[in-house]
């Protein structure tokens, strides 16, 4: 590949962020797998941790749509959507990595809102990238969520790694597509789309039936969009 100037630091990690992952590229790890990795000092893989902060609030939006609350994601430096988080440094554990990254990227006050190990809901291995992704979930009150959101503007990495914090729309509009299903049609980093779905199910914000409906609407839209794009070529 042509050297386009990744620089000594980025050239080591740029491969992890390449786009085009499929959900099949990721294997869900068991608790035993994680314990084994911890005993081996997390080697031989690279690891990254990301976290979803959310609040639940059943609300009738504009007197029309069933809103379930909000979840926090970010527009990343690379133009994709993801959760706050990042790659683990040498000597760190996944939870330490998560808290350090959340402080850097969203200014999380670790004296009040640090994540704990028992908030990890899933870990995935991407064999091809030799990368393990750890995913955590934290429920806060609506007031805490708004305060955390405001604080992100003062985070050290705001405007650099984190280009903006966004709220995931947790409702579906009358056409069955706009709202949450349309949000799923965006480009996501790593397996952040699957993590979002997993996180919302684990938080019991969606029923199985609601989630299946949303995923079907998103997939149908993608299929139709590529049909139209092919016709235009
Ligand atoms: O929200 C996410 N969920 C799952 N994987 C993600 C998410 N955000 C980034 N990734 C993936 O995690 C790896 C590390 O990326 P990240 O950019 O967060 O680390 P860094 O900030 O330390 O460079 C990359 O492979 C990227 O595609």
TrEMBL record:
UniProt keyword annotation of Hydrolase present: yes
Name listed for the protein in its UniProt record: U8 snoRNA-decapping enzyme
UniProt subcellular location: Nucleus, Nucleolus; Nucleus, Nucleoplasm
Necessary cofactors: Co(2+)
Organism: Elysia crispata
UniProt-listed Pfam families: Nudt16-like
Catalytic activity: dIDP + H2O = dIMP + phosphate + H(+); IDP + H2O = IMP + phosphate + H(+); a 5'-end (N(7)-methyl 5'-triphosphoguanosine)-ribonucleoside in mRNA + H2O = N(7)-methyl-GDP + a 5'-end phospho-ribonucleoside in mRNA + 2 H(+)
Family affiliation: Belongs to the Nudix hydrolase family. NUDT16 subfamily.
Coiled coil: none
Gene Ontology annotations for the cellular component aspect, listed alphabetically: nucleolus; nucleoplasm
